[in-house]
Amino acid sequence: MKKILSVFLVCLTLAGAVSVGVTADNDTLLVSAGDVSFDVRVEGIKGNLLYKKGESVAAGTVLLDALKALLDGEKIAYQEADGYVSKIGEDAAATFGGWDGWVYYINGAEASVGMNDYVIQNGDSFVICYADPYGDPATLFPQVSAERDAKGIVTLVVSASVASFDENWNMSVEIRPVADATVTVDGTALKSGADGRVKLDAEDSKKDKVTVQLDKTAENGKPLVVRLAADHTVSLADVKFVPPQFSDVAEGQWYHSYVYELANSGVIGGYADGSFRPDKSVTRAEICKMLAMAAPEADLSVRESKFSDVSADAWYAPYVVWAEKNGVVLGSDGKFDPNADVKRQDLAVMLCRFAENVLKKQVGGDAPAPSFTDAASIREYAAESVYLLQKAGIIGGFGDGSFGPARQASRAQFCKMLSGLLAA
Length: 424
Known about the structure:
This protein is of the alpha+beta class. It is 23% helix and 23% strand. It has three domains: 2-131, Ferric Hydroxamate Uptake Protein, Chain A, domain 1, CATH 2.170.130; 141-235, Immunoglobulin-like; 256-423, no CATH class. The chain contains nine helices and 18 strands.
């Protein structure tokens, strides 16, 4: 049923190419009263074939007629069959043996009618592209937004609307990240992570706008993401840092000020549901990210780790690499164990290394610190770090006077310790 539906949808979409009635004299477009204006871009398998802005046609013209007129004017060959285009230039439908072919988007949304049925409206923007929107994997039609952190660094977020159908042919649309795409920003090629994010450097982050291009293909050359227009720009001038608001961190809770101090500085973030989960155990990967974000400068351009269990595609990869290079974390037997919870005594060791190697400061103090009731339980490798942080007033114990060295450190506890360390 899905195959039949896919065939029907592709044919219907291909059929929707709008015809443009264009009158030209010596390459000068003649515009008459009642005309409508539109933009059109044709993206083939290997690149752009046609890009026209501000084209005008008579009101009532359908997209297929307009497209044919433009292709004829540019001397670009095409084949039409039963109201849709099956080939433009050298790119014919089913080049890759599936339901791939020519489809189109109206103002960034998937078309629901054929090109020969859609009447061009004033201000429309069309992307006619070689794609397989219902294949596996599907060709994605992307969108790019921008975020700015507290340090002014911009991250581009590449996502796409992906349509799917149930057994009754009801369509639903899901927004998902475009991972592992080549994102070219002002001529510099970068790679999007598993979350679809690409971090810009400090210089690019200062610009009012950047040009952006995307590219992602399968091994056989099949397009997996529709390219952006050659002159596509993303405005950065009005992108501001927006501190998160957590649904589970309320006024009056002992950790409230520490959590929001770090959140407002861009050091920490929450989860997709708006929560912070203060009582959840903090993981080794999370610590690496938060310490990197707290560092005065952190080179996060390298994703290839020496640890066998840290994939370059993992969200935490650049943070782990940074932490390892700065002597903040160590692995064991060539592994890092990124999702492991961290004991309080191990967190103390990481914080001391971060202070010494990254912040270039010595923690401690002149006054002796009282001994924890369970001091004998603190492992030898962590004893000095715990003692120094205690002397500096960065860590404390529990109500019974114990430190709980083997207890899991919570995200709230980490925020309190890191906040104290940064202020020391």
